[in-house]
Specification:
With 140 residues, the chain is mainly alpha-helical. The chain has 6 helices and no strands. The chain has one domain: Four Helix Bundle (Hemerythrin (Met), subunit A). It is elongated.
Length: 140
């Protein structure tokens, strides 16, 4: 597989993370500038943001949890030359599920749908890791 094909899903995941970060920053600056939230109310990370901002904050935080394993696996797959078509397809499935998960997180935040999407994405990533480990350990 070409380097571009292998890295494209990773780039989309990075764009998702930055988009959520920018959205959160804009929302926080707007709330502080308008006086809705006072700096002293949040200076020590107190949870004094409105619920909608906390919802977005949780979506951002989530991008630094399971996706970190995706980043590591992508880099390892490139370095070890084990990034093949199956890897790229599974990577796209993972990233698409992460986009859906983030979309649910920042809209209706339906815990059941969000949870199912999280489980699906994490299962795909787990399969990716198992395949990678087997290929490395068994020399496939």
């Amino acid at each position: 597989m070409s380097l571009q094909a292998v890295l494209a899903p990773l780039f989309v995941q990075v764009v998702l993370t930055f988009a959520l970060l920018v959205w959160l920053a804009y929302q926080r600056v707007t709330l502080i500038s308008s006086g809705v939230v006072k700096r002293t109310d949040i200076a020590l990370r107190e949870p004094n943001w409105p619920a909608r901002t906390l919802q977005l904050q949780n979506a951002v935080s989530n991008q630094f949890e399971v996706p970190v394993l995706f980043y590591a696996l992508t880099i390892l797959s490139i370095v070890t030359r084990h990034a093949d078509l199956a890897f790229v397809i599974l990577a796209w499935v993972f990233v698409l599920l992460r986009i859906i998960h983030a979309s649910i997180h920042v809209t209706d935040n339906d815990v059941r749908r969000r949870g199912l999407t999280f489980i699906a994405a994490t299962t795909v990533l787990m399969v990716m890791w198992i395949l990678f480990m087997l290929r490395i350990l068994l020399g496939i």
